[in-house]
Amino acid sequence: MRHYYIGVSYDRLGRRTEAESYYRSLATNLHALGVDDKTIQAILRHSNMGLTMNVYVKSVSKSQVIAMDALSEKLGTCNDLATNRGGLVN
Question: Are 29 and 64 in contact (CB under 8 A)?
Protein backbone atom coordinates (compact mmCIF):
# COMPACT_ATOMS: atom_id res chain seq x y z
CA MET A 1 0.00 0.00 0.00
CA ARG A 2 1.35 3.39 -0.95
CA HIS A 3 1.17 6.34 1.39
CA TYR A 4 1.20 9.81 -0.03
CA TYR A 5 2.18 12.69 2.16
CA ILE A 6 1.12 16.20 1.32
CA GLY A 7 3.53 18.83 2.55
CA VAL A 8 2.28 21.42 4.98
CA SER A 9 2.76 25.05 4.14
CA TYR A 10 1.67 28.25 5.78
CA ASP A 11 0.51 31.60 4.43
CA ARG A 12 1.96 34.90 5.61
CA LEU A 13 -0.45 34.94 8.58
CA GLY A 14 0.71 31.52 9.75
CA ARG A 15 -2.41 29.65 8.60
CA ARG A 16 -2.11 26.14 7.17
CA THR A 17 -2.85 26.14 3.45
CA GLU A 18 -2.66 23.57 0.62
CA ALA A 19 -2.45 20.34 2.60
CA GLU A 20 -5.28 21.31 4.91
CA SER A 21 -7.52 22.25 2.00
CA TYR A 22 -6.66 19.04 0.19
CA TYR A 23 -7.61 16.86 3.16
CA ARG A 24 -10.85 18.77 3.77
CA SER A 25 -11.84 18.45 0.12
CA LEU A 26 -10.93 14.77 0.05
CA ALA A 27 -12.87 13.98 3.21
CA THR A 28 -15.91 16.02 2.15
CA ASN A 29 -16.01 14.48 -1.33
CA LEU A 30 -15.62 10.94 0.00
CA HIS A 31 -18.45 11.56 2.46
CA ALA A 32 -20.66 12.99 -0.31
CA LEU A 33 -19.95 9.84 -2.37
CA GLY A 34 -21.28 7.71 0.47
CA VAL A 35 -17.98 6.34 1.77
CA ASP A 36 -18.44 5.24 5.37
CA ASP A 37 -16.96 7.38 8.13
CA LYS A 38 -14.53 4.72 9.39
CA THR A 39 -13.02 4.37 5.90
CA ILE A 40 -12.56 8.14 5.59
CA GLN A 41 -10.90 8.14 9.00
CA ALA A 42 -8.52 5.39 7.85
CA ILE A 43 -7.69 7.16 4.57
CA LEU A 44 -6.83 10.35 6.45
CA ARG A 45 -4.91 8.26 9.02
CA HIS A 46 -6.70 9.81 12.00
CA SER A 47 -6.87 8.00 15.30
CA ASN A 48 -9.91 10.02 16.39
CA MET A 49 -13.23 9.88 14.52
CA GLY A 50 -14.23 13.24 16.00
CA LEU A 51 -11.29 14.94 14.30
CA THR A 52 -12.22 13.43 10.95
CA MET A 53 -15.91 14.25 11.12
CA ASN A 54 -15.84 17.59 12.96
CA VAL A 55 -12.82 19.22 11.33
CA TYR A 56 -12.35 17.63 7.92
CA VAL A 57 -15.82 16.61 6.69
CA LYS A 58 -17.98 19.58 5.77
CA SER A 59 -21.67 19.20 5.10
CA VAL A 60 -22.70 19.70 1.50
CA SER A 61 -26.27 20.57 0.57
CA LYS A 62 -28.12 18.84 -2.24
CA SER A 63 -28.13 22.08 -4.24
CA GLN A 64 -24.34 22.32 -3.94
CA VAL A 65 -23.97 18.76 -5.23
CA ILE A 66 -26.28 19.50 -8.18
CA ALA A 67 -24.35 22.69 -8.99
CA MET A 68 -20.98 20.92 -8.89
CA ASP A 69 -22.30 18.06 -11.05
CA ALA A 70 -23.52 20.59 -13.61
CA LEU A 71 -20.14 22.35 -13.57
CA SER A 72 -18.31 19.04 -13.97
CA GLU A 73 -20.51 18.11 -16.91
CA LYS A 74 -19.96 21.51 -18.53
CA LEU A 75 -16.19 21.31 -18.05
CA GLY A 76 -16.18 17.82 -19.56
CA THR A 77 -18.06 19.15 -22.58
CA CYS A 78 -15.55 21.99 -22.96
CA ASN A 79 -12.69 19.51 -22.69
CA ASP A 80 -14.26 17.32 -25.40
CA LEU A 81 -14.65 20.35 -27.67
CA ALA A 82 -11.04 21.40 -27.08
CA THR A 83 -9.78 17.92 -27.89
CA ASN A 84 -11.81 17.73 -31.08
CA ARG A 85 -10.68 21.18 -32.25
CA GLY A 86 -7.00 20.76 -31.61
CA GLY A 87 -7.09 22.61 -28.30
CA LEU A 88 -9.09 25.64 -29.39
CA VAL A 89 -12.22 26.52 -27.47
CA ASN A 90 -14.46 29.28 -28.82
Answer: no
